[in-house]
Write a structure and sequence with these properties.
Length: 512
């Protein structure tokens, strides 16, 4: 249950007469209404007496104004209430009016502060942004707020309410209903009741308008409200004020739990990736060899390929033989101050450029229409989704491949975005494809599992993003990528790491 749902439940119990007990000695709401009606009639009679002292017609009006009250039809009752309570309309127990209509061209008088809906919140009145407008002497008398007045938003967040509790001169505009209750009715009780009605959706039922809702005055008058005796109103308000701090405490605890629940899957995913690249997700097995031995094979294969390529140049044969004899043990080691964490002894720190062939793409000139619309997939960084790439929105032609610097990357290539907001976004090709210049593609050497590289780049995404900071257009170059380091486990362990990640990472997604 959310904090708001808990509060709504408590308010609902309150206005149904289930939060505090009823006490016979406190009388009934029917008796309270009699007193209110008598006071209204006395006030009306006094007012009429000044117009025509002793006039028969006026005396007759004051004597007959206490006509039978309208009773709520059974099918309009939203819920049951105690027998000692009564259903009432707000204009039976209060004087209500909308505020002044603001018209700069027509308004006259001096400038005075006034409230509008942006000042009214469920937890009180905000005086941070109080506007001013012209008010005449008659306006001031009509729209002056008094302490204890309830203000209800007529539009916007319809029904949002607060009580004016300040000892200062203030007026109000026509986006607000001002409700001034007769003696015997607590504004605090009605404010809580309106908040409950808002939560139950009752207020909206009476609103006018389709796209923009408004609670016009006649609609406000049409709503039935449950009224308890005054003493019970006070006990209800006191009980809710006693419970509100507990609801606040519950809200803080609930928010912490919600925040934890939201962060947990992401944090767990990050932890799993970090454990994987530190050699802590699966065990090391001596029979699988070492990263150094794997690197020896990778370098030997590269050198053999290079030697074969250059075998036609006899003048270079000695140099090639010398190069091919270079072993992993003789290569330049990664300095300790570059290593971000410790790795198992059987692993080896290497540069990304050592474990694959890296190249960025290109964008064929848009002025050559013949370069686009062919059968060769052409990928932009926005097409990367941290998963497999099996199609692209755009394609290029064989002519573009032949005439421009685009590179056709084979199935299994690992892609990484280098520019802008997409820096670090990844993909693995399930199709042979070209890319634009904002994307760097790696064709891993034999002995390097493409998914292991993919997950390593994902684990270090923040580091690559930081590399791109500092310029007007954040970007990382291919040089920065190939000079970055990666821990290299034996191939069999790479595959076991990937298998374990693909077993656990979907659980993180399900937790989201």
């Amino acid at each position: 249950m959310t904090p708001q749902e808990l509060k709504n439940s408590i308010l609902q119990l309150a206005i149904q007469g289930k939060l505090v007990e009823q006490r016979a000695e406190e009388g009934t709401a029917a008796e309270l209404l009699e007193k209110i009606l008598a006071a209204k009639n006395a006030k009306s009679a006094k007012k009429n007496l000044t117009r025509s002292r002793g006039a028969r017609g006026e005396n007759k009006t004051s004597a007959t104004s206490a006509s039978p009250r309208e009773k709520i039809p059974d099918d309009e009752k939203p819920f049951d209430i105690p027998e000692s309570w009564e259903w009432v309309h707000i204009n039976q127990v209060a004087e209500t009016s909308l505020g002044k209509t603001m018209d700069k061209e027509k308004n006259t008088g001096d400038y005075y502060p006034y409230l509008c809906s942006i000042n009214v919140y469920w937890d009180g009145i905000s005086l941070e942004k109080v506007k001013e407008a012209r008010f005449t002497v008659e306006d001031k008398e009509k729209y002056l707020l008094k302490k204890g007045d309830l203000l209800i938003c007529e539009g916007g967040d319809v029904g949002r309410s607060a009580i004016w509790n300040f000892d200062k001169e203030m007026y109000y505009q026509n986006a607000l209903h001002r409700v001034r209750f007769y003696e015997g009715v607590l504004p605090q009780y009605f404010r809580l009741m309106i908040e409950c009605y808002k939560g139950l959706g009752i207020i909206e039922r009476y609103c006018k308008g389709v796209t923009i809702k408004h609670l016009v005055q006649n609609s406000l008058y049409a709503i039935w409200f449950p009224l308890p005796p005054l003493a019970e109103q006070k006990r209800i308000v006191a009980k809710i004020e006693e419970l509100l701090p507990l609801i606040d405490r519950y809200e803080k605890a609930w928010s912490r739990l919600e925040d934890f629940n939201k962060r947990f899957p992401v944090d767990m995913q990050k932890s799993l990736l970090q454990m994987a690249i530190q050699g802590k997700l699966v065990e090391q097995r001596a029979e699988e060899g070492t990263g150094e031995e794997l690197l020896e094979k990778i370098l030997a294969a590269k050198n053999a390929k290079s030697a074969k390529k250059n075998s036609r140049a006899e003048s270079q044969s000695r140099r090639e033989k010398k190069t091919s004899a270079l072993s992993a043990s003789l290569r330049e080691k990664i300095p300790d101050d570059e290593k971000p964490f410790d790795i198992p002894e059987s692993w080896e720190w290497v540069r990304l450029g050592e474990i694959g062939s890296w190249a960025s793409g290109a964008t064929p000139s848009r002025t050559h229409a013949e370069y686009f619309g062919g059968n060769i997939p052409w990928l932009k960084t926005g097409d990367l989704t941290d998963g497999y790439v099996s199609s692209t929105p755009e394609t290029i032609t064989e002519l573009a491949l032949a005439k421009t610097s685009v590179r056709l990357n084979p199935v299994g290539s690992v892609l990484m975005a280098m520019y802008g907001a997409t820096i670090g976004k990844l993909g693995i090709l399930k199709i042979a494809a070209t890319t634009n210049q904002a994307c760097c593609a790696c064709i891993p050497h034999d002995g390097v599992w493409n998914k292991y590289l993919f997950y390593y780049l994902m684990a270090r995404r923040k580091d690559f993003v930081k590399m791109g900071e500092g310029g007007a257009q954040p970007n990382i170059s291919k040089e920065k990528i190939v000079n970055s380091i990666i821990p290299l486990p034996p191939l069999a362990e790479q595959k076991r790491i990937v298998a374990k990640l693909e077993e656990l990472l979907p659980l993180c997604e399900r937790l989201k």
